[in-house]
Task: inverse folding
């Protein structure tokens, strides 16, 4: 009996999804990926395409969306598969960075979701990776809107950029912070930081009605000074 229990646990570990070990079907928690020309690309969740001028040639279209369509945990990913993009969605190269691709998406800031080759790059879009001295523009969007992110703020004055970044850097780490939910879910903003690179950095900022906070790594509490940059809600 003990051997059977070990066997079942091994099957669960190998599938990487929620299923019974014998039915061949599962609710699969897909990571955001695109496979193209034999390479698997992962979505950059803390980055956006800086501008359409960085788009290269159209290299193809998505052939198959696996989410909601694949329930077999043994399915082999094929060229043209994407986790969440519909069939026919356009895929583009990005100029100067052959290890990246951009996929058309109306839900994304600047209209494209960006992906990197996991074989050629380590993930390098955490806040600690951002070259602060090269930030030349900051935008803030109201996230999760029906028509997509809504731009609220555009900062291109060097002094304002410096002050904004200073407020972020002075945030107080608070890994155990719990937002106040008395008035519902916090307001979520997306902050986008542009440099001279084709991929801009993106991080969320939240406000629970009392406290501003964000997640440069662990949760950090910000002073109310960050609210001076935002329109009143």
Result:
């Amino acid at each position: 009996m003990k051997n059977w229990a070990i066997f079942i646990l091994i099957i669960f570990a190998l599938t990487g999804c929620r299923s019974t070990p014998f039915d061949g079907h599962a609710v699969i928690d897909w990571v955001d990926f695109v496979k193209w020309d034999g390479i698997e690309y992962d979505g950059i969740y803390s980055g956006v395409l800086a501008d359409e001028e960085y788009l290269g040639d159209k290299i193809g279209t998505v052939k198959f969306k696996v989410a909601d369509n694949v329930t077999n945990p043994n399915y082999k990913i094929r060229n043209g598969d994407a986790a969440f993009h519909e069939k026919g969605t356009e895929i583009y190269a990005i100029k100067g960075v052959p290890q990246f691709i951009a996929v058309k998406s109306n839900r994304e800031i600047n209209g494209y979701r960006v992906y990197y080759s996991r074989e050629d790059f380590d993930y390098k879009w955490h806040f600690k990776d951002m070259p602060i001295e090269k930030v030349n523009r900051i935008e803030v969007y109201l996230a999760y809107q029906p028509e997509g992110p809504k731009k609220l703020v555009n900062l291109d004055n060097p002094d304002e950029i410096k002050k904004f970044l200073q407020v972020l850097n002075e945030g107080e780490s608070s890994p155990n912070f719990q937002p106040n939910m008395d008035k519902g879910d916090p307001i979520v903003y997306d902050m986008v930081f542009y440099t001279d690179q084709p991929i801009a950095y993106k991080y969320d900022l939240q406000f629970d009605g009392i406290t501003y906070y964000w997640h440069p790594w662990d949760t950090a509490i910000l002073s109310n000074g960050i609210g001076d940059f935002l329109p009143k809600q």
Remarks:
- The CA atoms of residues 163 and 226 lie 9 Å apart.
